[in-house]
Design brief:
9-stranded mixed beta sheet, 9 strands, alpha/beta, 10 helices
C-alpha cells in the first residue's frame, strides 16, 4: 500500500478513531506547580497536570536560564525499556540507551525548552503491571496506547497555553517507545512542527516477518490498526513537516527491510509535496541506542528546522 499524500485530515481522524474510547478532547486542563529549582543549565519546574480527568499526570518542564521568551520547545517522550520507575526522569538524568548529556541539559544549552510527562504506568504513575492496565482498559473500551497518545496531545495543549512558549516552534523527540510516540504525535497533530525519532521507526509487516512482535510491550498494539494503516502511511501524515529518523541496522525492533520500505515511500511523499529536504533517515551499524554521531544529528536537525 502506497503512503497517502492527500486527504490528510480524514486520515488523521481515522487514525485517532482507532485509539479506543478516549476522554473528551476539550476536557478542562489544569496545572499545579509543585516545585521550581535552578540547575546548572536550566530552570526546572515540577508540575502536576490534570489532562484526562482520570488520574494526575506528573511532568517536568525545563527552560534555559535567562532565556529570551517565547521559546522554541521540545515535547520530549520518554522510553519504556521495562524501567517503569524512570519515566520523565529520563529527561533530566538520561538512560543507558542515550548519549550524554541528558536531553534537558542538551536542549537547554541549545536554547530550547522541554516538557516531559510520566506516561501511563511510568514514574509517579507506576504501581500496576502493564498487562493489568492493558486488560482493564480493554474491558472499558479503551486502548492503552490510545490513552498514552491522548495524554501527549493534552500535554501539547498545555504547552501552547504557556506564554513563555512559541507555539509556532514546537518539536517532538524520543527514543524507543518515545520514538513511536514522536511519530504518532506528529502524524496526528500539526501543531508539532518538527519530528525526531530514534530507534523505533518500525515497519509492522517487517516486524511480523522477523518474528519480532515480542520485542514490544503490550502497550504497542492497537486493535485493527493494520486494516487501515502501514507505518509508512502513518508517517506520511507528518509530511511536508521536517522529520528526522535515526535507526540501528542491528536493532531487532527496526528490521532493515522495513526501514528501506518506509524510506522509499516517504521519499516519494516528500518529493510529491516539494519538500525533499525535510525527510531524512540515517542508519548506523548499531543496536538499540543513541551514539554521539546520532546526538549531533538530532541537534543539527533541530537547529535547522526549529
Amino acid at each position: 500500500m502506497k503512503a497517502p499524500v492527500e486527504n490528510q485530515e480524514e486520515q488523521r481522524r481515522t487514525l485517532y478513531g482507532l485509539l479506543g474510547e478516549l476522554p473528551a478532547p476539550d476536557y478542562p486542563l489544569a496545572a499545579t506547580l509543585v516545585g521550581r529549582e535552578e540547575r546548572d543549565h536550566y530552570v526546572l519546574e515540577k508540575l502536576v497536570l490534570d489532562l484526562n480527568g482520570i488520574e494526575s499526570v506528573p511532568a517536568y518542564f525545563t527552560k534555559p536560564k535567562e532565556a529570551t521568551e517565547p521559546l522554541p520547545c521540545v515535547l520530549y517522550n520518554h522510553a519504556h525499556g521495562g524501567d517503569y520507575q524512570l519515566g520523565k526522569d529520563e529527561l533530566l538524568g538520561g538512560r543507558k540507551a542515550l548519549h550524554d548529556p541528558p536531553y534537558a541539559a542538551a536542549l537547554s544549552t541549545n536554547g530550547y525548552a522541554a516538557l516531559c510527562i510520566d506516561s501511563w504506568n511510568f514514574g509517579e504513575r507506576r504501581g500496576r503491571t502493564e498487562h493489568d492496565l492493558f486488560a482493564q482498559m480493554l474491558w472499558q473500551g479503551q486502548v492503552l496506547w490510545g490513552m498514552m497518545v491522548y495524554d501527549s496531545v493534552r500535554a501539547l495543549d498545555y504547552l501552547v497555553s504557556r506564554v513563555d512558549i512559541d507555539e509556532a516552534r514546537i518539536a517532538t523527540l524520543g527514543i524507543s517507545m518515545g520514538s513511536t510516540m514522536a511519530w504518532w504525535m506528529a502524524a496526528l497533530d500539526t501543531r508539532i512542527k518538527v519530528c525526531v525519532d530514534l530507534c523505533c521507526l518500525t515497519d509492522f509487516q517487517a516486524l511480523i516477518y522477523a518474528q519480532g512482535l515480542g520485542g514490544h510491550g503490550i502497550y504497542y498494539y492497537v486493535p485493527s490498526l493494520l486494516k487501515h494503516f502501514t507505518a509508512a502511511q502513518i508517517n506520511a501524515l507528518i509530511a511536508p513537516r521536517p522529520h528526522l529518523s535515526l535507526a540501528g541496522t542491528y536493532d531487532r525492533l527496526t528490521p532493515k527491510s522495513g526501514l528501506e520500505r518506509i524510506d522509499a515511500e516517504l521519499k516519494q511523499v516528500y518529493q510529491d509535496l516539494h519538500a525533499t529536504e525535510a525527510w531524512e533517515l540515517k542508519c548506523y551499524e548499531i543496536g538499540h541506542f543513541e551514539t554521539a554521531a546520532m546526538r549531533a544529528e538530532v541537534l543539527r536537525f533541530l537547529r535547522r528546522w526549529l
